Amino acid sequence: MKKVTLELTDEQLEEVKKIINVGKEFPKIGYEYWCIGHIGDLVSNIWLNDRYDNQRLSIGNVYSTEEEAQLQYDKLVAIQKVKTYIKKEFGYDSEKWGVWDDYTQKYMPCWNFQERGLDYMRNTYAKYYSPIGFLETPDQANQLIKDMKDELELIYK
């Protein structure tokens, strides 16, 4: 075996690390991972399998790359923007609205894979998970899709 020494920029080193870690068990002791910090910053850590690492993992806050962590952060920001928009434009908290035992129609945005675009679904009795809550009318759903298209695509696509 021949020993080779390479000089790499920081960017090149990060690319090599990604290649080396592809397909390997993650997280693993000694591997770098990313998480969203307590003030919304992206934080790089080394997996030690300690209580902090495992607590982050238990809530889904462990990402193998900075890009994955950034995407999740952007989704969380988009969700908050949409919730704020609903409260301001429609005058109610979309997470707290809706009585589920009276069969009231509820509407929620979704990604239509067949049409390859945003759409909404109607529901009366099955409470599906919706990160932004539910809307009262189809008109509100259509307005939300029109006005918050970029945020909704980030959340649902």
Biggest sheet features: 2 strands, antiparallel
**Average pLDDT number:** 88
* Domain count: 2
Q: Provide the β-strand percentage band.
A: 15-25%
Helix content: 40-55%
CA radius of gyration: 21 Å
As residue ranges, the low-confidence spans are none
**Secondary-structure element order, N to C:** HEEHHEEHH
The N- and C-terminal alpha carbons lie at a distance of 47 Å
Question: How many DSSP E strands?
Answer: 4
Count of alpha/pi helices: 5
Structural class: alpha+beta
Q: What topology, given as strand order, has the largest sheet?
A: 1-2
Describe this structure in words.
By secondary structure, the chain is an alpha+beta fold. The protein folds into two domains: 10-64, no CATH class; 76-156, no CATH class. Helix content is 40%, strand content 15%. The strands form two sheets. The chain has a two-stranded antiparallel sheet. A hairpin with a 4-residue loop joins strand 3 and strand 4 (117-123). Helix 3 packs across helix 5 (149-156). The chain is elongated and about 70 Å long.
In short, what is this structure?
This protein has 157 residues and is of the alpha+beta class. It contains 5 helices and 4 strands; from the N terminus they run αββααββαα.
Short descriptors:
two-stranded antiparallel sheet, 157 residues, alpha+beta, 5 helices
Helices and strands, with pairings:
Layout: H1 10-21, E1 32-36, E2 42-46, H2 51-58, H3 66-90, E3 106-112, E4 117-123, H4 138-147, H5 149-156
Antiparallel strand pairs: 1-2, 3-4
Helix pairs in contact: 3-5
